Backbone:
């Protein structure tokens, strides 16, 4: 072997060692940067939002007219009639059939039926396509409830949802529901009152148009100014901040009542070791305005940008300044008012069912 060949081999080995060392150093820096960002010396912005300086938080307010009254005022203003109305509303909300978003189909019974018997027959008709089908039964005192074991019913209603994000109920799906309900009615010696298909289809298309028009999702991003962040360290830190890590790798911020306030994506596969960009996403029609989902999401984005040496940007990678965020917040407030006027308030049971 010549002296030149030996020299080249030595140089090549040095380069390989250098590359490996550099990669290790980059991984170390990414891990340490996240650890420093979420060290205990930082205040927890998500858990203590009131600690954020007011000058740095121009978050949207609730729509005009939505006020929080004092307990004394509530107590003095509540009349007997209002209390009865509230009880009726609560009872109605508990029923799985909603005349606004479901097609209600009556089954008139010739004789009372036991809930146990009905439940066995209903198990095969819980969905048509991707639209849920629900059943309620009338008790002896004329009240209605979801069909359940142990009940005895003098009348039944089936309800098939007219639309969701996947589309409107179509003629084939509706025909399938009616065919299967006819079989069910024959088995229970009941009379089926079938709504006109043309009318049902018109309602379904109209409702789906509403869903399409109000299917809004807002996102903000946090882009690293320098080195990427180590995924494993980042995920652990985000979980400590209150995020729930789902099996698919998606992180969600709970709303405290079983729902989701907003979600977070690392924009990389589960096998990736680092990321340079985080995306926070608000599913607008599924979050009630009282929760101020947009304000909470942008506050979280600012906190992450501050701790991770990043910048809050839009999908086009342009920085999102406070005036731009305030303008978006106003648009969100207007959006919520429109949903309220359509009797489908954001975050309500109706909205959750439609925007699913």
Residues:
């Amino acid at each position: 072997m010549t002296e030149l060949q030996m020299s080249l081999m030595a140089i090549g080995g040095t380069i390989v060692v250098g590359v490996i060392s550099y990669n290790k150093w980059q991984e170390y820096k990414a891990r340490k940067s996240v650890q420093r960002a979420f060290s205990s010396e930082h205040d927890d912005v998500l858990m203590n939002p009131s600690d954020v300086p007011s000058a740095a938080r121009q978050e949207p307010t609730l729509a005009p007219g939505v006020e929080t009254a004092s307990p004394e005022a509530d107590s003095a203003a509540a009349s007997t009639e209002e209390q009865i109305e509230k009880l009726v509303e609560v009872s109605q909300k508990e029923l799985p059939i909603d005349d606004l978003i479901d097609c209600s189909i009556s089954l008139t019974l010739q004789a009372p039926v036991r809930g146990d018997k009905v439940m066995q027959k209903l198990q095969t008709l819980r969905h048509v396509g991707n639209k849920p089908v629900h059943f309620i039964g009338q008790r002896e005192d004329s009240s209605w409830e979801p069909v359940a074991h142990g009940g005895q019913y003098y009348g039944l209603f089936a309800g098939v949802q007219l639309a969701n994000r996947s589309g409107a109920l179509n003629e084939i799906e509706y025909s399938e529901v009616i065919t299967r309900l006819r079989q069910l009615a024959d088995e229970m010696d009941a009379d089926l009152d079938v709504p006109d298909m043309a009318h049902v289809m018109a309602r379904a298309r109209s409702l789906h148009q509403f869903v399409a028009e109000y299917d809004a999702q807002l996102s903000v991003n946090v882009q690293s100014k320098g080195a990427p962040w180590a995924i494993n360290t980042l995920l652990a830190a985000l979980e400590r901040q209150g995020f729930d890590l789902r099996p698919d790798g998606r992180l969600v911020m709970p709303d405290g009542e079983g729902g989701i306030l907003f979600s977070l994506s690392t924009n990389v596969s589960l096998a990736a070791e680092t990321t340079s960009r985080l995306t926070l996403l608000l599913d607008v029609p599924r979050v009630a305005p009282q929760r101020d989902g947009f304000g909470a999401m942008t506050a979280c984005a600012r906190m992450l940008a501050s701790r991770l040496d990043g910048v809050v940007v839009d999908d086009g990678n342009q920085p999102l300044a406070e005036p731009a965020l305030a303008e978006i917040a106003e648009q969100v407030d207007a959006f919520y008012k429109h949903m309220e006027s359509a009797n489908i308030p954001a975050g309500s049971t109706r909205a959750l069912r439609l925007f699913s």
Observations:
- The first helix runs from residue 3 to 37.
- Confidence is low (pLDDT under 50) at residues 40-80, 83-93.
- The CA atoms of residues 4 and 130 lie 72 Å apart.
- Residues 215-354 form a domain with the Cell Division Protein Zipa; Chain: A, fold (CATH 3.30.1400.10).
